Amino acid sequence: MGATNHMKRSIVFFTLLLASTVVAQTPSPVTGASNSPLNIGLVNGVAYVGNGPAYTSAWGSSDIMTQLTAAYAALPSTGGRIHIAPSATTYNTANTFSATTAGKPVTIECDPGGATILNFTPASGTMFTFDTRLNSSQHPVGQGMRDCVLTTNAGSPTSTAISLGSTNSGEGYEIDRTKIELFQTDVAVVGTPSVTGSFANLFENDVFRSSVNGILGSGSVEMSKVFGGSFFNITGAAISGAGDFLVNGTSCDDPGAGGCIGNGVVATWVGGHFENPGGGLPVYVNTNGQAYIYGGEALDDTNSGTNATSWFSGTTSAYMDISLNLVSAGRTLTTSLVSVGGSSRAWVRFYNNSPSNITPICSASSVQFNVCSDMSYASNAGVLATWMSLRLNGTTTGLTLPTAGTLNLTNAGNILWENAAQGGTIALAKDTNDLFSFGTQHVPQVLTLTSQYTNSTTGFTNVAGGNTIQFNVLANANYTATCHLYYQAAATGGLNIEFTGPASPTAVIYGLNDPSAATTLNTAVATAYSTPLGQAAGTNATNFDAIVSFSLLNAANDGTVNLLAKSSAAAQLQIQSGSYCQVQ
Q1: Which residue in 127, 133, 122 sits closest to 108, CA to CA?
Q2: What is the pLDDT of residues 185-228, one digit of tens each?
Q3: Please, are residues 362 and 408 in contact by the beta-carbon 8 Å criterion?
Q4: CA gap 30, 530 in Å, rounded
Q5: CB 109 within 8 A of CB 82
Q6: pTM of the predicted model, to two decimals?
Q7: How distant, in Å, are the alpha carbons of 232, 261, 291 from that of 251?
Q8: CATH 2.60.40 is held by the domain 445-583
Q9: Contact between residue 186 and residue 175 where contact means Cβ atoms under 8 Å apart
């Protein structure tokens, strides 16, 4: 009897346990099952939606967007996650999803690798809207979408895949590892209300493909970040509209007329890859965009033919600061690499791997202030050749020139600007208007004594008073100088000068015109360094203006040219402050 009762109790217990397990597996939008093969309904605070009768039963609809809407409503008031189950067939839907409850963020996630494709069938409308920030003091992070594929099969759509922000403002959204294609606009970042706008949204390793607009900002959009991923065959602009964007390690391939950085945005693009597999432009900055592109590569991979469109262009008020490696597979660029107009400005530095196919020059229309410049670096047998072209239109002030390289000025020929500490050479080539044909001209320098020079001996010393009258000269360069030495001498004293300089010049010649008395002019010329010129003053303690001339055709030795002076006797010679030499 005891054994029989024990067996009966065991059967009853097992039956109750089995019944409870079956109840737990019944799908519900409120309570789901975590021990079934697929999570369905609401399980541990996460909503699960998908294809199949169980999901339809749990959420009351087979339409994926209707399920997402019901799942969002079933989440706790603080928000949560919704997972879309992978499906062997595409989720086709004509409905939209909106998460617009302030303070109730949501992240929609799919399985990675393109396992979940959502197809939006209408030609217009916004597929997903996220607008859940509670207030301007809350700075949420992490909500958004990841690992999904969004597409549309509507012809000529005007639809938007994702909209961030509206009434509550879009802040802290993350669109990660998501592929969006074929829409009018892939992501709209809406910067309203204007007081708070959209701030610090993140796009990470996304693919934006074959749409008109990639990311389109409007209103107040601040510090959007795009890390990795690519914009591919965006027929309008990859990033445009409004806002500032940090783009890091992202490619922009085959952009359309709006380019990679379009109207209205400020984009800092670091380590990018710009390519045109469809024959478009590697990079384009349109109308009034601002581009700060540092590092990476711009590649024209078309093998033959010509291209008459500039890679970088600003037609109204664009600003470009670009440092890139340029590569051309063979197509020849027949126009300027950089084109700016209106009040646009450009400062660009290129490493050019294909100098025969790409001409890295700038063109600029006539504006009040416009600087368009570029550098090209080409290595030939280990020798680095550097050149720089600069075009100025209108009046400019405060222009700082480089210390080395070749500078091309519109209507002013070629300028070689060398380090001023070594002589400061400018080489002006004859221009088409025949305005300049000076040959070689150095940077003019004026060396002025700011205090009196004195010498009461017959030994030569450097003419120095506050400043020393000496200047550096380069090998194989030519120099001239003219000096006014305002001097006086005591009885039996007088002015004597000489020059010293680098050995073995091709030619050196200098002269002294010395009015040693009111009616006397003494003239002397020397044709070698360290040749004294001068005589005793005819009138003592009286200031005279002695004029010194100097000319040098230097040879293989660079060095320093010095002006030295002494008295004609052991009587004081004074060269007054304000005496000077002009050298060039």
Answers
A1: 127
A2: 999 999 876 556 788 899 999 999 999 999 999 988 988 999 99
A3: no
A4: 104
A5: yes
A6: 0.64
A7: 8, 12, 15
A8: no
A9: no
